[in-house]
Amino acid sequence: MNSSVPKEKEMTYPLTDPVRLAQELIQCQSITPTEGGALDLLEKWLTSLGFTCHRLSFSEQGTADVENLFAIKTVKGTDNFCFAGHTDVVPVGDPKNWSQDPFQGVITDDVLIGRGAVDMKGAIAAFVAAIARSIDQGSAPQQTLSFLITGDEEGVAINGTRKVLKWLDEQNIKLDFCLVGEPTCVEQVGDTLKIGRRGSLNTYLTVRGKQGHVAFPEKADNPLPKLVSILHTLKEGPQENKSAFFDPSNLELTSLDVGNQTTNLIPEKATARFNIRFNDQQTGKKLSEWIQDICTQYATNFTTEFEFSGEAEFLEPNDMTAHMSSVIKALTGLTPDMTTAGATSDARFIRHHCPVVEFGLIGRTMHQTNECVPISDLELLTQIYGKMFKTAACKSS
User: Fold this and answer.
1) Is 109 a residue of the active site?
2) In this predicted model, what pLDDT tens digit does every residue of 189-212 receive, in sequence order?
3) Residue 197, strand partner residues
4) What is the C-alpha separation between 250 and 342, in angstroms, rounded?
5) What is the largest CA-CA distance in the chain?
6) Helices (DSSP H) in 251-364: which residue ranges?
7) Among the options 24, 152, 153, 311, which is catalytic?
């Protein structure tokens, strides 16, 4: 449905101030999948800036209902530049370990502290403020702008971006380019422009044997040596060609268990969980087949379950990445590294619909106690975002 904001609820603070906007968003306790008022707030801001807002709620059996927002301000005959992101955040852990209330957005020594400050309520605030400034300065955006904001990025990612993209297809709304505001930078705002992400494959491996007494191993079949041999071989990694944009694929063991509660029992089964982050020389199918082949070398009685969250993807540097890089360099003096490192994001879904890159704040404190962002970084990101979409020439005063 289209939404509007009653005039009596309009803001008393300027939308040109990214710090105040970030504080307001942080004060919304939007821990996945709770909306927490964050999308209500964003909808109110964007409506006041002339966007048409659509609140989209999706659910699926066995999953929680998720609120999402798609907002668009159309300039006929122009490309649709979409800003994508999420208002949901991870839990704070023990609030007593924070120096400030994680949901108050307190500023200390010119640093804004709060859950979501960098991942990624700060970036959302910066993009909204960039649009508001362009309008306030008489240089309104001269291309179609849209927001695709989910409440399900930090969760299972079933009822969020993927379903919004499907809804866009049904509505014949096309995205021409997408900027995801994830915290991509490493040491300074502007040092990294993410043009892709590694693929991700989770594997659940169970090797079965025969239970028995440790004093009589000939009467049992211990699955642990077989599992250890499998994991040792897998850790050496698949053979692959060198990739121009990716590091080699990497396997990390995340769990090893037999559920044994005594010292004199050979277990009946042994299980392991591991994740492979892989490059563009691999596919989920190739890796799952490779894992199966290794397992058969050491065991005959085993099972594997695969959880595949996306293939490796990247955007070949083009005119748009060159434009973004030039904007960043003009405002920071830095030529950003174009990288594919890091975790997965909703860009893995968006890439099937349009070219997508990621650029946001420094990710050093994301998901940590005392997540925070310097006020100066929020201001700089707002200026950078404001130069990335097309605006009219400023009116003379």
Assistant:
1) no
2) 999 999 988 889 999 999 999 999
3) 313
4) 12
5) 92
6) 284-298, 319-332, 347-350
7) 153
